[in-house]
Amino acid sequence: MTIELYELAGAEDDRPFSLYCWRIRFALEHKQLDFEPMGCRFTDKDVIAFSGQDQVTVLVDTGYVISASWAVACYLEQAYPDRPSLVGRSAEQPLSRFCVDWTDTVLHGTLIRLLASDIYAHLHEKK
Length: 127
Ligand SMILES: N[C@@H](CCC(=O)N[C@@H](CS)C(=O)NCC(=O)O)C(=O)O
Prior knowledge:
There is one protein chain. This protein has helices at residues 19-30, 69-79, 93-121; strands spanning 3-8, 35-40, 58-61, 64-67. It is an alpha+beta fold. Helix 1 packs parallel to helix 2 (69-79). Residues 8, 18-20, 42, 55-57, 68-70 line the site of glutathione.
């Protein structure tokens, strides 16, 4: 069964722009797991209503529905222990969590200033 990754997309499905979902793309690539990208627009929340909330990141794997990138990363770590480790499995996890918090509070603010106009230019007519 294919892993599905729901992520924000604009006019082109192959230009997903959620920084949170990028993390999970990197995680899936790192773990060499195939996945199906599922585009979702800002105004198209019905697509992810099954997850019980209204934001991406959402990952579906063998019937499991996981939302929020950190929870998804931890799920992948537990579900695929034979694949290369990304966030660590015990003692290392707090360091990974620190990196995530730093990325959220420091790096995203800078990145979004660089990306915002490009995201706007590629929005779908549905937004
Ligand atoms: N903590 C969440 C962040 C969720 C989030 O902020 N998602 C944004 C995309 S970057 C979203 O879905 N925005 C659409 C909206 O709020 O309508 C995660 O790590 O996945």
